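Lab notes, practical 5.
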Amino acid sequence: AHNAPALAWSPTLAARAALWADQCAFRHTGGVLSAQRYGENIVAGTGEFPITAAVASFVADEVQYDPAHPSYLLFTQVVWKSTTQLGCAVSSCDGIFDRALGPAALYVCLYDPVGNVIGQA
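Output from the prediction step:
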């Protein structure tokens, strides 16, 4: 068990996540949303790809996590103990994957304070 506290929903983070999701850029923001740095999880899927599937993809990394040899994954940002807030957004985007697959649902989740910081828990 990770014993991380529950995260609080942040409308501010959700609005910033929407700014990025609406650009249909399937990559990390590189800090362009704010002078403040946020943790990020970004995932896209086609067909039936609801938020539950997006979150499931974030936490699926848990099986790869080895505390004896820690690495920083989508999962570790979700359960980072010093992170207290979360905001997510989704946009329907053409061109992320092969056009024959149809539009993709692009989910962007931002976390504050940022997690996955070497030397912190």
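Observations recorded by the TA: DSSP finds three helices and four strands in the chain. Residues 23 and 91 are 8 Å apart (CA to CA).
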